[in-house]
Amino acid sequence: MRELDAETRETIVRIIKSCVYGDLATICPVENSPRVRPVCAFLQDDLSILIPSHSQTRKIEELRANPKVEICFVDAEHWQVRVAGTAVVVEDASVKKKLMETMLSPQLWRGFFPDGETDERFVLYRIQPKSFEWMKEWELSYRRVEL
């Protein structure tokens, strides 16, 4: 992955970490049309993004059919970051366990996934970013970096 300069990295990290949710876009294979939904998104040190999901959601089939995604974050000051990349299933139970122990509340996780990190309904995706675009609302043009 290409290294980002310190200012670019700081801007991207600041905007994403200030957001509670990101809006994830996928393609519905049946209708060949976009689908967008808010998701919990957890930025990692390597700038990948973890997206937990329940196996019964529509996005699971959509991502199996086409793992290319975009996720958009908009902060309270109207800065936005768009991350284009590929969603890859994380099979490592230790990654799931760490996420469950450090993000959100254990009660929330256990409500969705009673068997914890080994729950077969718990699907975790890692978005491997290919590009970042960011701007302040009304600037009319994005700054862009390809990785």
Layout: helices, strands, pairs:
Layout: H1 6-17, E1 21-28, E2 33-40, E3 42-43, E4 49-54, H2 58-65, E5 68-74, E6 79-89, H3 93-102, H4 106-112, E7 122-136, E8 143-146
What is the 3D shape?
A: globular
| Superfamily (CATH H level) name | Electron Transport, Fmn-binding Protein, Chain A
Q: What is the CATH class? A: Mainly Beta
Query: How would you characterize the largest beta sheet?
Result: 8 strands, antiparallel
> What's the gyration radius in Å?
16 Å
Share of residues in helices: 25-40%
Tell me the number of strands.
8
Q: Point out poorly predicted stretches.
A: none
Q: Give the CA-CA distance, first to last residue.
A: 5 Å
**Chain-averaged pLDDT:** 95
> What structural class do helix, strand and pairing data support?
alpha+beta
Specify the number of helices: 4
CATH names the topology as Pnp Oxidase, Chain A
The CATH level-2 architecture is identified as: Roll
Report strand %. 35-45%
Number of domains: 1
Following the backbone from N to C, one meets helices and strands in this order, namely HEEEEHEEHHEE
